[in-house]
Amino acid sequence: MGKILGAYLLPHPPIVISEIGRGEESKTANTIRAMKQVASDIGKKKPDTIILVTPHGPMFSDAIAISYEKTLKGSFERFGNSDLAYTFSNDLELVDKIVRNAGDVDVVCAKVDKEFAKEYGVSAELDHGALVPLYFINNEYKDFNLVHITYGLLSPIELYKFGMAINKSINETLKDVVFIASGDLSHKLTKDAPAGYNARGRDFDEEIVYLLEKGNFEGIMTIEPEFAEAAGECGLRSLQIMCGLLDDYNTTSEVHSYEGPFGVGYCVASIDVLEKSDRHKLLQKLIQREKETIKNIRNNEDEYVKLARNSLEFYVKNKRKMNMPENLPSTMLNEKAGVFVSIKKDGKLRGCIGTIQPSEENIAKEIIENAVKAGADDPRFYPVEQDELDKLIYSVDILKKPEEVISIDELDVYKYGVIVKKGNKTGLLLPALDGIDTPEQQVSIALQKAGINPTEGYSLYRFEVERHG
After folding, report:
1. I want to staple 219 with a disulfide (CB 3.0 to 4.6 A). Which of 42, 211, 241, 248 is the partner?
2. Where in this chain does the record put each AMMECR1 domain (predicted)?
């Protein structure tokens, strides 16, 4: 039976590497010291294989990507140093076991070789999310095979199950394994941070550090997606896979360092694996928690949200649109307005379609039509399937009449949505969206949606909404 020797959270800013930082790395002295300490610890453990999960390889919304070339290569050429190049042997035996065991729990894995990479327009090279931790480890220890995984945009429960599948796969071998969760924390700690500033970024980092110090895996698994999105992080999903990996073990943990000198949070932590435990009960707690959350949301739906949900559910199950229900409020039957229906699954957008101006005889009909379009016709997503319906969360925005504004100073991202127009190009963004903190962001995204160059002259409008859900 294989053995998990330890698990680690490691950040991946290339600037911590002296050949790239060229002096700037001195601002990350605590991180460098901690990463060297972890690398030394791994060298002493002498694992047969290192499994590394990164956010920066081929990313899919519905699958985990696993490198499937016999030899894994990568360099820091993108960061100005092509001499820092690395080659590792892929542990294909373990990869095949992971793919099979993940499939048994309905988690899809994409085996990324050169042919796959070419077909999907992604890279088969090792990314910097892998290379930065491996740079430090390779300086201490070289006699290991590598499994290179890029997490997908899956739900926490799916990521936890995937971690459990890795655990099972290791147990089916005779190999000693170390697990690396590669990820930075908030990218929005300061006003000059690369992703801009969000006050919740610091709160997120403090929460993650606290949970790691306490070894509180349940807390890591139940962080609200909106909280993580506001923080602009890239490490949470790696950690959630790690939680699943350590599902049936007692553990102790230590945070070796945390700092954010460039407006991005870097945390180095280690998890020591002890004896077996009954922690696997956490999965059932997570599933039950999800069911209770959905139940509470359903119980508090108003007529607008309930109509949107009923419309899409009827369409998916019957392949036709529902008739107008009886006993709807008079405002829904007697008034017209533009309507946007938004659908989320596991905290992430699953579809959003709407009308700026009314196109139906009343608001109710507008909701019925746009709910179906949001679930079946949003080109960014595949159509909603029946087995997803119980996990979907709906909101309905009734648009008030837009008014033209002269300056971006007249906008408020929490109060007003925006519309940009240039000729026959139009882009709209609703108010109070997760991760949108400034009017500049709001207008920029609306322009991108419309395909309007920001240097072009365009008309700018603001509008308020009546939000349901």
Report:
1. 211
2. 299-469
DSSP letter (8 states) at residue 207 = H
The phi, psi pair for 186, rounded to 5°, reads -60, 140
Domain with CATH 3.30.1490.150 in the chain: 400-469
CATH architecture of 3-287: 3-Layer(aba) Sandwich (3.40)
According to CATH, where is 3.30.700.20 located in the chain?
301-396
CATH number at 301-396: 3.30.700.20
Q: According to CATH, where is 3.40.830.10 located in the chain?
A: 3-287
From residue 279, how far is each of 250, 421, 465 by CA, in Å? 8, 54, 45
Q: From 173, 150, 147, select the one nearest 90 (Cα to Cα).
A: 147
Contact 403, 461 (CB under 8 A): yes
In sequence order, what DSSP letters do the residues of 21-49 get, joined into one string? Answer: HTTGGGGGHHHHHHHHHHHHHHHHH--SE
Would you call 341 helix, strand, or coil by DSSP? strand
**How many beta carbons lie within 10 A of that of residue 424, not counting itself?**
6
User: What single-letter DSSP state applies at residue 323?
Assistant: P
Residue type, 12: H
Q: Which two tokens stand for residue 136?
A: 């430090």
Q: Tell the burial category of 129 from Cβ atoms under 10 Å away from its Cβ (0-12, 13-18, 19+).
A: buried
Q: Checking phi first, is residue 269 left (phi over 0); if not, alpha (psi -120 to 50) or beta?
A: beta
Q: For residue 165, what is the DSSP state?
A: H
- pLDDT string in tens for the chain (469-residue length): 899 999 999 999 999 999 999 999 999 999 999 999 999 999 999 999 999 999 999 999 899 999 999 999 999 999 999 999 999 999 999 999 999 999 999 999 999 999 999 999 999 999 999 999 999 999 999 999 999 999 999 999 999 999 999 999 999 999 999 999 999 999 999 999 988 899 899 999 999 999 999 999 999 999 998 899 989 999 999 999 999 999 989 999 999 999 999 999 999 999 999 887 765 689 999 999 999 999 999 999 999 999 999 999 999 999 999 999 999 999 999 999 999 999 999 888 999 999 999 999 999 999 999 999 999 999 999 999 999 999 999 999 999 999 999 999 999 999 999 999 999 999 999 998 877 888 999 999 999 999 999 988 899 999 999 999 9
Largest interatomic CA distance in the chain: 74
Torsion of CA 435, 438, 440, 443, to 10 degrees: 60
